[in-house]
Specification:
The complex is a heterodimer. In chain A, the strands form two sheets. In chain A, strands 6-7-8-3-9-10 form a six-stranded mixed β-sheet, with helices on both faces. Chain A has a four-stranded antiparallel β-sheet with strand order 2-1-4-5, covered by helices on one side. Chain A has a single domain, classed as Rossmann fold (3-Layer(aba) Sandwich). Chain A has seven helices and ten strands. By secondary structure, chain A is an alpha/beta fold. Chain A is globular and about 50 Å long. In chain A, helix 3 runs parallel beside helix 5 and helix 5 packs parallel to helix 6. Chain B is of the alpha+beta class. Chain B folds into five domains: about 160 residues, no CATH class; about 180 residues, no CATH class; about 240 residues, no CATH class; about 160 residues, no CATH class; about 300 residues, AttH-like fold. In chain B, strands 22, 23, 24, 25, 26, 27, 28, 29, 30, 31, 32, 33 and 34 form a 13-stranded antiparallel β-sheet that branches. In chain B, a hairpin with a 2-residue loop joins strand 6 and strand 7. In chain B, helix 2 runs antiparallel to helix 10. The longest helix of chain B has about 45 residues. The chains are: A alpha/beta, B alpha+beta. Chains A and B meet through helix 2 and helix 3 of A and helix 1, helix 11 and helix 14 of B. Chain A: One of its GO terms (molecular function) is ATP binding. Chain A: Keywords: ATP-binding, Nucleotide-binding, Transport. Chain A: Belongs to the ABC transporter superfamily. Macrolide exporter (TC 3.A.1.122) family. Chain A: It comes from Spiribacter salilacus.
Amino acid sequence: MSEIIFESLTRWYGEHPRRLVLDGVSGKITDGQFVVVIGRSGSGKSTLLNLLGGLDTPSQGLVKVDGVDLATMNDGALTALRRRRMGFVFQSYNLIPTLSVADNLRLPLQLNGIAEGNKVSEWLARVDLQGREHDWPDQLSGGEQQRVAIARALIHEPAYIFADEPTGNLDLANAERIVQLLDSLCRSAGRTLIMVTHAPEVVGLADQLLTIREGRLVEAEGH
Amino acid sequence: MRLPVLYRMGWSDLRRHPVQSVLAIVGVAIAVAVVVAVDLANHSAREAMRLSLESVAGRATHQVVGGPDGIDEQIYTELRTTLGLQQAAPVLEGGVTRPEPERRALTLLGLDAFAEGPFQRPIGSGDTLGDAFNALLLRDDAVALGEFEAARLGVAAGDSLTLLASGKPQTVEVVAVVEDPDDQARGLVVADIAAAQHLLQRHGVLSRIDLILTPDQVGQVEALLAENNARLVLAGASANAVVEMSRAFHTNLTALSLLAVVVGAFLVFNTLAFIAVRRRATIGVLRAMGVKRQQILQQVLMDALLIGALGTALGLGLGYLLAHGLVGLVLQTVGDLYFAQTAGQLVLSPFSLAAGLVVGLLGSVVAALMPALEAAGTPPRAALSRAHLETRARWLAKKSAIIAVGALLLAALIIGLGSGLVSAFFGLFVLIMGAALLTPLVVLMVGALLRPFTRGRPYAGLIVEGAVASLSRTGVAVAALTVAVAAVIGVAVMISSFRGSVVNWLEGSLAADFYLSAPERVLTDSLANSLGDLSSVDYVSRSRWVDLATDQGPIELWALELPAGQPPAVDIRQGNPDAALQAFANTRAVLVSEAFASRQNLAPGDSIQLPVGAEQQNFTVAGVHRDYASPGGVVLMRRALYQTLYNDDALSGIGVHLQPQADRAAVLATLEQMVGNTPGARVVDNAAIFDQSLAIFDRTFAITEVLRWLAGLVAFVGVLGALMALHLDRTREFAVLRAIGLSRGGLGWVIGGQSGLLGLVAGLCAIPLGVALAWLLVFVINQRAFGWTMGFDLQAMPLLEGVALAVFAALIAAIQPAFRAARLTPALLLVAAVGAAQAQNMAEVMGPDIDTDRFARVTGPQPLVFPDDHGAHPDYRTEWWYFVGNLADEQGREFGFQLTLFRSALDPEPPARRSDWATRQAWMGHFAITDITGGSHRAVERYQRGALGLAGAEVRPVRVWMDNWQAQSQTDQTLFPLQLSAQDEPTEIGLDLHLTALKPHVLQGNAGYSQKGEDPGNASRYYSFTRLSAEGQIDFANQTYTVTGSAWLDREWSTSALDSNQAGWDWFSLQLEDGRDVMVYRLRRTDGSTAPQSAGIVVEPDGQSTVLGADDFTLTPTRHWQSPNTDSRYPVEWSLVIPEQGLDLAVEARLDQQEMPTTIRYWEGAVGVQGTTHGVGYMELTGY
């Protein structure tokens, strides 16, 4: 069962003064959903995503992934969870600059002990980057880098994909392409996709919309 | 299978950042190189000093003296032969006068050139005398002069000179005028000791014996002297000053070595930490992807090990090369002060290598792991955030500042409460760590301080913020630079303090313009009065030096008389100077030196007991003065008080202080004329001594100075690497600046400004740390090591140099990145791939080219008569007793040994001279042991005169000896059984073997006539004992081994052996398992061909022998080895075929490095034999 439940999620930074970023957010994300998190800059969207993905720890509240409270997991377990069940796509791509495109894709496979087979070339084909295996990340355009990042996030077939403004650095055409790619790749495999975005056009694709304003969830809307 | 991607990331990262990677490796390499080089040089210097005798200066440490009649010369022989002391030199001094044309008092100094080596007297040693050596040694009327004294006397080499000696005129010939740039031989006439005994009519006696002793040897010498009418005293003050300085040199080298380790460790830390910081974002991504912390650490560790290993390997090699240069320099310094014949090689110390490895590898790993641990332990989101990193760096800067304060307090506590050198060095280390931890906060504070001035100045703002904002990267770089520059400053201040103090002290102790001394007690108050009455003389000081015997050892007492109102020129360090000098002048108070006060735990106001006649009397210590001369300390007393107490009016010296405008040269001439009637009185120009002392000091510290600049170079390269890497890493940021409108020049200013600011901060931080280091070196380390203090000479120059070094390095580091950033267009930049003498024969060695026709020659066979022929044949020019053998202990540890005693006649006529020192025979000894199992070879060479029982050969029983090396037969009639013994302390080798002949002697060649050249007179008398059983002990490197084995004796004498067209020989003595012994030699001509006189012998198990001619055997070299010390290429493996004997043998060196580091280099060593039969042997290769 793939499911993320979050209750009263609160995150602040610093102590004197405390800077409250996320304030008592609760919700539930079920298997295969496409969840879109929207809100203004600084509203706490990325923080919510990081907390759900176990990249950050809440100041208060809990996150349950597949029924397990992340707070009860030690670093090893959390790491394993991220490695096996999750994939991340960042706004700034965050490819490993010193690894070739193919090696960037190989990395999650090897980390999870999955046989490589033709997966690297298959996934490059899916993101329309055939023949770019040996390129370095900085030889690719932003859109191309993001497509590699998507392939890297999906290649080991995780249950959850977290995408933090994956189109933020891209032009409209590229942005559309990325969103469609993510949507189709996730839906076709029944993966849960949680995407933080500014792009209003994405909202129409969402199964669930989480709108964050000043750290609070203003409406939770399910399709 | 390919390595998993995760583990290829590091390598890939290094490849993608080639410049940074090379910088990192070079950074580690340089740090390791310096650590290794400094330590190797230091270690080699110590080794050199140890070999030339531990902690000893260019002069004697002790002297054997007797009453006014001198001491019995036999004491010298006992010191050399019984105790085996090598650094002992006999001296006979006496006053002589040159009556005409102008009366001049001179000191006749009789020396033994064979013993002078270690003592470095102006014109004593053989090598400065050249061809005159033989004349001096063989004649009673031969003398040498220094060049200036010769000029004063108006004589040149070859002139005769009439001297009034022992009451009658004697004519001597000046056979040598020796270079003497500092006029150290003023007033001296130097002669061989035999000639001096003759001229002074003092046969059988010496004035004294100069010794260089280790603490262990002192007791032995005292025990020996107890039976004679002589005693051991510490040598003169000036010599001891040099000894102390040399110890200081040691300690300071050690301090510098430790500093190099700390600086090196910081640079490595900086380099690796930088890479780890750069990878922090990647670590964040990996963590987000679910890579385990442990995997990340593994990866970082592997990378660090890779860089560390590459850098360390490079650094070890570089360090070795660097050390070669440094060792040359160190040895030059050592050679200035010491005699170190066996030294000169780089000594590979395990500690040096270990220090290099620790700094390089461990330093790399720790440096890389710390930031990696931090990054891996941070939530992935935060690790991806640069802001988080910098925030954390600031937080850490503040935290570490708190730790720094703690460390500084701890350092103060350790230094304050500890009393030994170890605690001082540990304190030094903690101090450096504390200061380094403080620097990041200083960077922040400088940023805060400058920020108000940057408002409205965008460039200034970029410079300041850029430097401060990247604290995670700049903090460590600034700390590393600070430590390196502080080391440079600290050592500079220490050296200048040291020098300043020495200058001060010399000015005080050499306050007089001229100093009169005399070998006997001939100086009187009336002479002093008349000197004082001279118009150009301001006043005279009168000194009396005595040793007071006490239960705790002798106390050196200096009684000084100065005119009323003239205080002694001493630097009072403890006690009120004015009050102390007042008390000294008017009461029973004395002044004591720092070393004395430290040793006796005295402070001003305390009282000390001194023996006065039979009773002990108390004296108040008025003050403690600075004195670097006597290690045991000195007590300074008013002479009037001394005269009253001790009833002694004698004077040891008179200091002459001139009027300011006096003509020094004229006064000197007058003074010399006035003392013309005082035999042996010498006038010493203190200005010359002053210059000479400073020259010694400067030479001593030359190495320290070089090391200081080396530390500077390391700092320079280190910061260059760190800042360059930093700038390269920020290329993108610079591109943004260009994109938003910063001009190329503007960007250059920003990069240069940031770099320069960081350099300046480091330079400024280095000043207090450097001064603190200097303070610690001056006041704590040197004080604890030697008991005396130095002044603290803080001058602006070294500080400014340090700051300039830091800023300069920082600016240089900015050039390439600035150029690079400015050259590329912003758009390109933003997407840029950032990654993209030898042929001499033994006969030549053995003596200068003298007329061989006057010697007896070997021209044909002649019956040998034993045991007489086992003894010396003094009518032949050259002769040797050559013992070699292969031995093993019970555990199978194998050794080879060679002990050869060479006799060389300098003249065919026996001397008709009375002195026991007179001789025509010079002896040379070579002693070597090869630790075959341990792969090590040690050898030593000695010289001695064949007189006075120091070296010689006797029969019934046979005894051949040089000092404590000897071969002694156990019966009167036969050579064997024979006890062979030799010891050499500096090289730590020795043997004591009982040898028995297993076969009778064999006569080589034609019944012992061994023709070596075409001329029948070019031949030697030659016989051998080819198989001796040996049992006894071998000493090697402080270990004693009980051994057995077989040995070989060759006896050979000749006057002229080789033809002029012969280059050398390859000689083999082989003992085969089947009981046969083989000797063959190949004489090589200069054109490389084999001379027909090459020959050999095969000795059957029953002693029957077959002589081999040149055609009876073939010798073919099969492998060569090139000596790293001389570049000579020796054939160390041979094929030897003797068809008639059915022998086809491979002869191989047991160890390649068995080259003899002797005056004439040759290869002599143990060999193994394989082939038709097996065996062992020895091989001698000359002329390569």
